[in-house]
Structure formats: structure tokens, C-alpha cells
Amino acid sequence: MTDVRLGVVGLGVRSALAEYAHRPGAGSRIVAACDSHRLRRESAVARYGPDVRVVADYRALLDAELDGVFVVTPDHTHEEIAVAFLEAGIATFVEKPLAITTAGCDRILDAARRSDTRLYVGHNMRHMPVVRAMRDLIQRGAVGQVKAIWCRHFVGHGGDFYFKDWHADRRNTTGLLVQKGVHDIDVIHWLAGAATRRVTALGGLSVYGDITDRAGRDGQVMTDWWKPEENWPPLAQRGLHPVVDVEDLSMMLMQLDDGGFASYQQCHFTPDYWRNYTVVGTEGRLENFGDEDAVVKVWQRRSDYRDDADLVVPVPAEDGTHAGTDPRIVNEFVRFIRDGAPTMTSPIAARDAVAAACAATASLRADGHPIDVPRPDPAVERYFASVQPTNQSSPTEKAHDAGC
Length: 404
Fold this sequence. Notes:
alpha/beta
């Protein structure tokens, strides 16, 4: 089997997922890497071998005879870089969010359609074991017809992860409902089988805006300052980004296009770090406890409070970063490049998650004014439905995790 030739643009923390694709002789290899910072460029040889081509400008890779490319750069750069590679006919993996505006997402989707080039968005949470378990239960009718989904996201390391570098500046993200929340909004849409069409939201910069100790971190990545044993309680944080104007607390209500409803709450100063989903249907309720080594419980009989659910599904941890999801999405991307295999992720769904998050951000900055979420272009929807069908098999199947 000839290796799929891949490039990676952006050598920061998230570029670690591309290393799962560097398997010379086994199906794929990283042959080119790009980053604007010299020290990160110098690390590429150690990561990918002496033959890797290293450049400072992504444009130098547009004619590098790549089969595919990972775009894992800061969010506000996704649009420009993805469009360039798609128009060059190079299959493109874009880390979530697809872009930081709905218009930016639509531009990327249109570039993929016009060039007829494969586009993949890194919504790895669709592959998370606990999410697959919940979706499998819903598909099997464990709660009946889904009517409501609630998600509480406790971002316990938010001060370190999102308020010390470019994430804290809304010019780079729009807001953390987009940068961070699109993961959960996409999962809500996937579990419900419906997208958001109207939102209202409230939120604010409740804690980190009070911290005046700031620091520039040009050339640094999160692992350079990450010290989980320090910086607690949240107001003890030091060295925040010079610009901090994104919300650290957000509450979003969603009306779905099938008549259902959902809510999403995100807090960046909790002591714990995990997500809790509740799905309520016409015949029961399910809820997860934990992200990894988790359990999903389903209640199907009337009662007062009881811990002994009617159905308990243990969800053990899997190997690999992000609960085993990163190797899954890399394998899926490589198979998609090689033979056009169906994907569990969806560019249209990725766009819908950004559109809902952007509308909610606009709503909370307008004191909760309800906002309609724009629908994607029907022609673009039809195109992706024909060239990139979403894998609708049982999420618990293991066959799709075979090697590339």
C-alpha cells in the first residue's frame, strides 16, 4: 500500500493528533510541516524524521504534491488556509471550529464544493466512547423520542487553557461558545438528530476580567505554562493574555428544527473538568457521569430520586489522547482520503455548530435577544450529502477503527 502523503500546518499543542498519521510504510506519513515560529519548525525533524519538508508559510506547501493536510492553527486562520488548500485540490482536515464565523464556514464549504475536494472537520467528540454509548442507546429507543437535551460543561482548567493566549481575544475566536462550545453543540445536534434554528443566551466575563496580571506569550504553547497544581482558586491566576474579552460563563438555550429544545452551560472556573449530558425523551431519561471511565444511566420507570437506574452502561477508557478519539478521527480522515469512506463527522454539521454558537454569542452580547440561526445553502447541503455520507452505523461498532 502506498502511503498517503500528508502535511501539517501549525505545530502547536493540537498538532499532536497528526502524529497518529505518521506511520511510514503502514498507510500514511507526514512529509511536510509548517509553522511561523522557528523553534516549532525545528521540532518537526524530531517528530517526523529527517526527510520532512519544513516551511514557515503554508503557501509553500500548495504545490508539494500532498494527498492531504492537517490545518491545526489558531481558529481565526482556519478559513484562509483551508480555502487555499481546497482550491489547490488537497484533501483538508480542519480542526474544530471550522471557522470563527458562519460566513467563514460557508466560504470553506463552498470552496470544497467548487473544487470537488474532500473536507474533514475534527469534531472528535463524535468518536468519544461515552458519546457513542449515549447515541447508541438513543438509536435503540432507550428514552423514546428525544425532546430535550441539557449539557453542563465544567471547564476546570479554563483559566490556563483559554485565558493565557490567543483564545482570550474575541478577534481570534468570536468567543468561547464558538472555540470550546462547538464540540458540545455538535454532540447535542447529533444526539437529537436535529440542528439549532433559534437561540437566546446570557453570559459574561465573571471572574478572569478582574485579574490585572498580564503577560505576552509569543512563541509559547499551553504546555509551556501549564501547572495544574498551581493557579487555584481562579483569582490566583497570573499572566493572563494582554487582551481578555471573551466570556468565562455562558448559558445558551436552543430551539431545534424538529421542535425539540436544548441548553448548554459553560463555566471556565469550576474545580472539576468534565461534561454532563442529560437526554429526556418520551419514554425515559439518560445521563452520563464522567468523560472517561464513565457510566451512562437510563431511568425508564416513575419514582422519586434513586441512584439505581433501570439501565447502567459502563464506558471504559480507551487508548489514545482525548479518550481515544484522536487516533479514530485520524484513521477516518486517511480512509476518507484514500477511498472516500463514509465519515462519522460532517462538514455541514460542523458549520451548523458554529452558526448556533455565533448566534448565541451575539445574543448574550445583546442581553439575551433571540436570534435565528441561518440555514446552510441547500445546494451545498446536497453536495455534501452526495459526496460525504455520514456513517450511520451503530456508534459502538469497532470495525471502523481498523488500521488505514
